[in-house]
Each structure stands twice: as structure tokens, then as C-alpha cells.
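Below is how a single chain appears once it has passed through the pipeline. First comes the sequence as given, then the structure the pipeline wrote out for it. We keep one example in the README because the format questions we get most often are answered faster by looking than by reading.
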Amino acid sequence: MESQSPASGKATPRLYLPKRSTVLVHCFLLVTLLAIQYSAVDGVMESLVSSEDEELAYIKQDQYLLEFAVHIGYIFTPALTSVFLVKTANAKIPIILGVIIASLATFFAPGAIQTSLFRGMWARIVFGAGFGMTLVSLFQLIAVWIPRDEYSRSITFIASGFYAGISFGDLWSAILVKSQGWTTVFHTFALVTLVYLAIWSYIVTRSPQSHSKITISELSYLQTNAARIEPSALNLWSLLRLKVTWVFVFTLTVFFVIHTGLVSTIPYLFMELLWLDLTFAFLTLLILLSNTFALCFDYVCRTEPGKAPKKLREVIGTTSFIGTACFLKFFCGSQHALTARIMGYSFAWLIFTNSYCGNIAALLDVFPRHSALILGLTFIPVGFWNIFAHVGLRWILDTTGNWDFVLSLASGLLFFAGVVWGVFGTTERVTM
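Resulting structure:
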């Protein structure tokens, strides 16, 4: 039978792609394009360092300052954006604004970098500000568009856009640098993102209710099973008094910081072990495996419509941290054989990505209206610590090559976070 669109009343074709799937695909592509811009400086750094241009001579000594500037940008903008999201329940506006800010900063970054270190850092700081606005808003959009029993695979799918962007960006950056010059990398991907943003803005709506082509059956399903986020009071003081709030802030901070550290050091491990940079192949495989696991997780844990697999999410949240810590500590050290280190590192990454299933998906289920606010608070410490995770760890590996220190630090933090989540974490809905 043909169904009716709630807004237009026109018949919908027999072959109907759920509109939430369309939203997910377009959000994945948007994250991918932003991730390319995020890694643009890393992709052209070799060209900048080896440049004979006198205006770029400072980069040889100050390349780390240029690299970590992006993390300063999203220290405060996610928190400020989350206040807007709670009060208006409109995630589309800050997403559009954030992408525009980030893309314009990327487009003008080459001119700023060629002028001075100070201006180059400011260009990356502004990009980070727009990037942070977009990230926290995307999670809020997911809560509105995706039913609770699909949170895990949906968040994992969109997050894998970050890996896709880094791997794709590194590949095409190398091609563009050789053929057109390093400035082309910034200009090309900034313009492509802005053009695609126009398409994204036309197709993706702020909520299922405002989509003109969604069927009555899908809209009814989402109204029953997705979060019904409406404008509400901030309730910041009440939120800060809850123990579970700080459990989420701590565990998510550890997750994001370790995630940044591991992503930024992937090339170092493969260059040390194989003398080849296999980042592209590794991230591609990771995308496939992590999304497959998330699909299986949602399928196996599917309960009655509208009910999330609460206890299993709590277990996954704990095991993803502790399991990753064990693989990093006991199988990836320099004392192990080549095969053991590669396999251990791969399994650690696969388990680590399951945190999306356990922790971030749980956040949307526990605080549907205030999840953005908690993420905004989380990004304050994340922004500071990511400076060390992104640049500090790479500096340690560049100067000492001490992988055992890096792995011990990461595994220790992850193990502690797993214990905290296992003892104090919850997936029970909090009503405010």
C-alpha cells in the first residue's frame, strides 16, 4: 500500500527509504568533509616544513603550535552552543553556522599561515570553534531523528565519518599538494563543504515533524520511540548536582582525549613496525568493523519498541574501556613481536570504538533534553587535554620513541574510566 505524507498528503512511492536513513547519510558526509578540514594542517605539514619560502620558515620550529591551535577553538563554543540547544531545541541553526565558520576559517587559513604564526593559529582556532558547534549539535539532531534502539549504530556510523575524513583527506591532500600546491588543499575542501552544506540544509530538517515527505507511519514511529526534545529551562544547577552528570563528563572526557591521542599517533606505529603509513587501510577497515559491530549490537539487544538495551549498554560501556586498556597494555608494548603488536592494536581500536554503543548512546537515552549541555561541559576539559593528546604524544614519539609510556598512559586512564563507569554509570532515564 501507498502511505501518505503528513505534511503534503501526497502518495508516497512503494519503495520508500526511511527519512531518518537519509538524515544519517547526509550527516555522515558532513562530518567527513569537516574531518578533512580538521586534518588539513597535518596533511600539508611536510610540505610546509620543507618549503623554502621565507614566510614559512617559522613552521620548522613552531609546527606543533599550529597543529594544536584547533583544540583551543572548541573549548568554549560547544558549551555555549549547548545552552542554545536546550533553550530552543533547534540543532539545525548551529550546525549550519558552525560549518560556515569552520569552512571560511579553512579557506582563509593559507593566507593567515603565510603571514605569521599568530594569524595561522587564529585561523585554526576559529575553525575549531565552528567544528565544536557542529559536533555538539549533531548529537542533539540524532536524538530527535533516531529511535532509541538505533542509537548505537547511528552514532557509530556518523562518528566513522571522522575516520573517513582523515583517511580520505590524507590521501587527496598528498595528491593536491604535488599537483597544485598546499594552499589548494584548504581552498578546495572549504568550497566543497560550503556547496554541500547548501544541499544538506535543503534535505535535512530540524525534526521529523517538519519534514514534508516523511510518511505517517515513520513519523508515528519516531514520535513514539525517538526523543521528543522541546525547548526547556536550562536547569544547570540541578544538572550539576547529579552524580551521573559528572560520571558522564569524566568518562566522555577520557574517551575523547584518548581517541584524539590514538588517532594522531596511528602513522607513528605503522611507520615503526612496517616502515609504511597504512593509516588509510587501517581506518577503512576500522569503519567497516565498527559499524558491523554496532549493527549486531542493536540487533541482538533489540527489546520492546521504544526501550533501549539498558543493562547491556552499561556492560558495553565498561568492557570497551577496560578491554581497550588490556589490549594496549599487554599486547602492544615494544617487547612483543610484530604480529602481536599489530593484532593487539587492531583489537584495541575495535573494542574502543564500541564506546559509542555504551557511553555516548547511553547519554542520549539518560538525558534526551540535556545531552548537548553535558557534551558542552565535557568539551571544556577535552579541549585542554587534547592539546597534549594531539601534539604532546607526537612530540614524545618524535623525540624519544617511547611507545611504552604512551600505551601505559592511555591504558591507565581507560581502565580507571571503565571502573568509574562500571560502579557509578547508569542508563536509567533522568527526569528534570
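Residues 1-11 have pLDDT under 50 and may be disordered.

See the next section for the split statistics.
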